[in-house]
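Good day; I would like, with your permission, to put a structural problem before you. A protein sequence and the structure tokens that stand for its backbone fold form the material at issue. The record follows directly beneath this note:
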Amino acid sequence: MFEHRCRNCHANDPANQSYGPSLVGIVGRKAGTIDGFAYSDAMKTSGIVWTEDTLRSWIAYNTGFMPETRIKHMAITDKNEQDFILTYLKSLKK
């Protein structure tokens, strides 16, 4: 699922540059905090911590979850797909 849904914009290795920030260590991280990445003001000031629940909301409808985001993606509303992605994201640790 990561390869199909996320890889176009995100790396799973912080050493690899990508359009979006690396998702290694995303679970438990405050949104908009990776140094050197040009986050939107909405992301930087959101105060969101990426938990399973906030990630699930983001994955399902990111522009509804954070209307001022610059990040646009296809909504992933299928719970099974979300579960696969979240399981993978939780495994990406520093």
The chain is about 35% helix and 0% strand. The domain at 2-91 is CATH 1.10.760.10 (Cytochrome Bc1 Complex; Chain D, domain 2).
